[in-house]
Amino acid sequence: METNNINIGKDDNELEQMREQLEIMKQKLSRQEIVSDNLLRRSMSNRMSWIKKYVWLEIFVMIPFVAIIYAGFVAVFNISLWLYAVILVSCIVDTYSDYRINKMSQSDWLEGNLVETGRKLLKMKRQRKTSFIISMAAMLVILGYFCYEMFNVSDPELKFIGSVGSVIGAVCGIAAVSVIYRKMQRTNDELIHQIDELGRGIE
User: Fold this and answer.
1) Is-above-0.90 flag for pTM?
2) What pLDDT score was predicted for residue 166?
C-alpha cells in the first residue's frame, strides 16, 4: 500500500514537471513569435524608407536645383518671370503632395494593425496614381508654353540650344519620374502582398 502511494506521488511529480516544461515551451514560442513579428514589421518599414528619403531629396535637392536652372533660363533666354514662378510653385506643390501621400509613421508598422496598414498602402497607391496623372498633365502644359517662349527668343543660336536642351531635359525628367512612380507602386504591391500572406498564415 505504501509502495503504491509512493508511485502515485512520483507520477504526480512527473506530471507536474511535464506541465511546467510545457508552459516554458509555450512562453518560448510566444517570445519567438513576438520577435519574428517585430523583425517582419521592421523589415517592411525599412523597405518603405527609400520613399521617404526620395521625398526629402525632392525638398532639399530637386527644388533648389530647379530654381537655379530656371533662374538661368530667365537670365539667358529672357523667359518670363511669371512662367518661372509657375514652374517653381508647381514643383513645390508636387513635392508637398508627395510628402502628404507617402507619409507613414513608424507606429503604423511597429504597433499598428497590419490589416489597417495594408489599407493605408492601397489608399496611398490610389492617391499616388491620381497625383502622377495630374503632375504629368501639368508638366506637359508647362513644357508646351515653355517651348513657345523659347521659340520667341530672338537669337537663333540661343533659340536652338534652349529648345533642344529643354526637350532633352523634359524627356529625361518624365522618364525618371515615371520609373520612380512605378518603383513606388511596386514597393506598395510587394508590402500589401506580404501582409496578405501573413494574414493567411495566421488564419
Assistant:
1) no
2) 82
